[in-house]
Design goal:
Elements lengths: L17 E3 H15 L3 E5 L3 H4 L2 H6 L4 E3 L4 H13 L3 E7 H7 L1 H9 L6 E5 L17 H5 L6 E3 L4 H11 L6 E4 L4 E3 L14 E4 L5 E4 L3 H13 L6 E4 L2 E3 L3 H11 L2 E8 L4 H10 L7 E6 L9 H7 L4 H16 L1
Parallel strand pairs: 2-3, 2-4, 4-5, 5-7, 6-7, 10-11, 10-13, 13-14
Antiparallel strand pairs: 1-8, 6-12, 9-11
Length: about 325
């Protein structure tokens, strides 16, 4: 591996361990419960999967089991927010962004309710749950909502920090977590600032922008390219909305090309937003997305499905090579 300098407490792939982002969410809820009596948690009969079970066991009087009824749960959380509580609700991404989108838009977002929506099991990496549960469209559904913020934490630490920070934010928020254990790419000291990117690696030749479980793949792609003498910047972008446009345009101006890596649909995701920001600027550079393109996948091993969808490390490298080729042209 080339001698690379990692910034902001991020780690090289040789030092990664594996953990669930859901555990970071669950741990944060328990800590919030001790710190703030206004924090309440709602769940849709998925406490064992979403890890709201930690809060349920610690603070049963502030935990509300809403059953398999996401739309009712969203409206209940909105009502609690108007009573001065800070409601966190959790279910699977496909149910929240699909079945309960009406309530999220009209009750929570339009009315600017202080509701914290945590969407677990997002993306195709839910694997064996099959295409009915593989939520790739959630970013496309949530990003156009006027008041909604979007968070896509990449690892245990980022999920924990983002969840705790949400109690300080007055407004609607959608935070998406995956199902599988993922590499812990950051550390306890890594900063989390809402609306800001984190520099992972620096380099002049091109920029990877990534979030969720695609961040470790972008880092590995940068590590492999560095062995060839191609040094790329890597930005962790946990906040999809509002986007850190300053970091995007700085990367465009200083590195001349951008590859966005995300486990969501190519339509309406971070790739689309980055491309729009660049196209409306004075710095026109090649932008390419490594994302899910017009496909439903089958039930299967998460990592095999990621390969079928074109979300492997090699796909990130291939995309960067294309950007570098167009950059020279």
């Amino acid at each position: 591996m080339a001698n690379l300098t990692f910034h902001n407490g991020y780690l090289p792939s040789s030092e990664w361990t594996m953990e669930l982002t859901r555990k970071g969410f669950g741990d944060a809820l328990v800590e919030l419960g001790a710190e703030n009596e206004r924090v309440v948690v709602l769940d849709a009969d998925l406490a064992e999967s979403t890890y709201t079970k930690f809060f349920r066991d610690a603070y049963p009087r502030r935990f509300f089991e809403c059953g398999i009824s996401e739309a009712d749960m969203v409206n209940t959380a909105a009502g609690l927010s108007k009573m001065g509580y800070i409601p966190y609700l959790a279910s699977y991404s496909i149910f929240l962004s699909g079945r309960a989108w009406d309530q999220i838009r009209n009750t929570v977002d339009y009315s600017y309710c202080n509701v914290k929506i945590t969407a677990a099991h997002g993306g195709i990496s839910v694997g064996k749950d099959g295409p009915t549960h593989q939520s790739n469209e959630d970013c496309s559904c949530m990003q156009p909502l006027v008041n909604m913020g979007l968070l896509y934490p990449s690892d245990f630490w980022e999920a924990k920090k983002a969840t705790k920070w949400l109690a300080e934010w007055d407004g609607p928020m959608y935070s998406r977590l995956g199902r599988e254990k993922v590499p812990i790419t950051s550390s306890e000291s890594t900063p989390f600032v809402f609306g800001k990117a984190n520099l992972v690696l620096d380099g002049p030749d091109g920029t990877f922008i990534a979030h969720g479980l695609m961040l470790p793949r972008a880092i590995q792609a940068a590590e492999k390219l560095a062995e060839e003498g191609i040094f790329c910047r890597v930005l962790s972008m946990p906040t999809v909305k509002p986007l850190d446009t300053e970091a995007v345009l700085k990367a465009a101006a200083e590195t001349g090309g951008i590859v966005v890596c995300e486990e969501v649909s190519i339509y309406g995701g971070l790739t689309s937003t980055v491309a729009r920001v660049v196209s409306e600027s004075e710095t026109l550079v090649p932008v390419k997305g490594v994302a899910v393109r017009d496909m439903y996948l089958s039930s299967g091993d998460p990592y095999e499905l990621m390969s079928i969808a074109g979300l492997d490390v090699e796909d990130c490298i291939k995309a960067m090579r294309d950007v570098l080729r167009r950059k020279k042209g």
